[in-house]
Write a structure and sequence with these properties.
Strand order of the largest sheet: 3-4-5-7-6
Number of helices: 4
Structural class: alpha+beta
Order of helices and strands: HHEEEEEHEEEEH
Largest sheet: 5 strands, mixed, barrel
Radius of gyration: 19 Å
Shape: elongated
Helix content: 10-25%
Length: 187
Amino acid sequence: MQLSTSVSQLARVGSVLEKWVKHLGIYTVHDLLWYFPFRYEDFRNIASIGSLKDGWEGTIQGTLSLIANRKSPRKRTLLTEAIIEDSTGQLRVVWFGQPFLAKSLAVGDRVSLSGKVKSDRYGMQMVSPSYEKIVPEGATPIDDAHVTTHTARIVPLYSLTTGMTQKQIRFLMSEVLPLASRIEEWI
């Protein structure tokens, strides 16, 4: 791969994602490397579930003990509800309008969730956190935080176009970042 390589030749870039990326003015690997985040979120603070307090922001890691979809009685939107647990306790998790999560995450999966903890009349919960599996299938991690991309670290946030996700642009960046050393220094 070269700096002049078209983004259409990158892994997981189909015609739709290529159109969205080009809408952002990104045509080559060089353009992608020069597409900088507009801010960062610091999710390096990893805590146990038992130590969480209302308003805390960071990352928790644990095992899913329940995940299911249901319709919201008031707003008629789909909710995905889960319970994550570690050795210190359990925490409710809710995502709105993301029913695919019940198929991509399963009971027993070890996950990393980053976001803000809120307290309501039912107890503590995380609403729409960033998520990822922390143990790839067939692998054993040495350090759980080391294998994450979207949680448990400083996470870049990019300006996007409709239909694109932060996870997609972060994946593309991770593919081309090793080529940054080929950019000629001009200072």
